[in-house]
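Chain A, query sequence.
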Amino acid sequence: MKVCVFGAASDKIDKSYIDLTCLLGKKFGEKGHTLVFGAGGEGLMGAVARGFKESNSEIYGVVPTFFLDDKIEGLYEECTKMITTETMRERKAIMEDMADAFVIVPGGIGTFEEFFEIVTLKQLGRHNKPIAIYNINGYYDHMEKMMLNSVKEGFVREKCSDLYRYFDDADSLIDFIENDKGCDWNLVQLKKN
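Chain A, predicted structure.
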């Protein structure tokens, strides 16, 4: 299975995030899975890639050419395959198409945007792939509360919380990714009821 991981590119975070994300990558790799990611060599992107590499797994990095030209961030140099794109939109589309599942580890604005895009696409029936949030150190607790409040206030349908799951341990997250059967509905169907 190709697992797309979205997460922080910054190393200026607590080491526990890096260690636990590296271990997650190693555990996925030991189970024979392949990594699809944004090709970053730092932060949690680099950590997950190092974890997959420890178990000799394939690693597919996808990076826009302007990251290379402008030296926006260091790349993970040991990818099995590096795919370059012209735009961020193209980068995300390739990662989304390649992936069989998505894992969101702690991150910033880019990670939030990637999460909400893949959840929106699943809600609209454009894919039915599992989405797991790795809630290391309770990082996503506030987002979970925000999402529950959005349901309570009527901005998001209650059933939409079935589109993804939160996990605070790697083993449960991997089990979910490997065994999820997907949703049996999409927003078009939900609106008809």
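The beta strands are 2-6, 34-37, 59-64, 81-85, 101-104, 131-134, 165-167. Residues 76 and 168 are 26 Å apart (CA to CA).
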